[in-house]
Amino acid sequence: MEHRIATLDDIDILVKTRIEVLRAANKLDDSVDMIEVEIESRAYYSRALKDGSHTAILVFDDDKFIGAGAVSYYQVMPTFHNPSGKKAYIMNMYTSPDYRRQGIAYKTLDILVKDIKAKGITDITLEATEMGRPLYEKYGFKQLENEMEL
Q1: Are 66 and 95 a contacting pair, CB within 8 Å?
Q2: Which overall architecture, per CATH, does domain 2-139 show?
Q3: In a structure prediction context, what are the per-residue pLDDT tens digits for the chain, which is 150 residues long?
Q4: Using alpha carbons only, how large is the chain's radius of gyration in Å?
Q5: How many angstroms separate the CA atoms of 43 and 24, rounded?
Q6: Domain residue spans in the chain?
Q7: What's the pTM?
Q8: CB-count exposure of residue 18 (10 Å: 0-12, 13-18, 19+)
């Protein structure tokens, strides 16, 4: 298995994977129109890969694409617990069904977390699906109790 950092040349794979992840996470079948999400995702990747606010890892078995994971970097107002205000949001964790339960997602997650920490960022969050939760808990992520959403 080869893990590598995605480049602008990989946008087609990234967009396709993003749509697959969203369909799976939201239990959407192929009849649901995702054109707008696809267009906006392509624009996002074009911008974010250039400016460094997004890193994506692609996983291959020889030439076959089998998985991915990504992180978006952003900044909020500095706080006592996060003086830099820099944050990282892990997303788009995906492994092809035939390759699951082989440690591929764990290794991808580890590469992302090490990259985040190398950038000096300590505030790392993600949203976990029911299927992904055991992976994140095994890695050491904890469920937050003090966040709210509108």
Answers
A1: yes
A2: 3-Layer(aba) Sandwich (3.40)
A3: 899 999 999 999 999 989 988 888 888 999 999 999 999 999 999 999 999 999 999 999 999 999 999 999 999 999 999 999 999 999 999 999 999 999 999 999 999 999 999 999 999 999 888 888 999 999 999 987 766 667
A4: 16
A5: 22
A6: 2-139
A7: 0.87
A8: buried
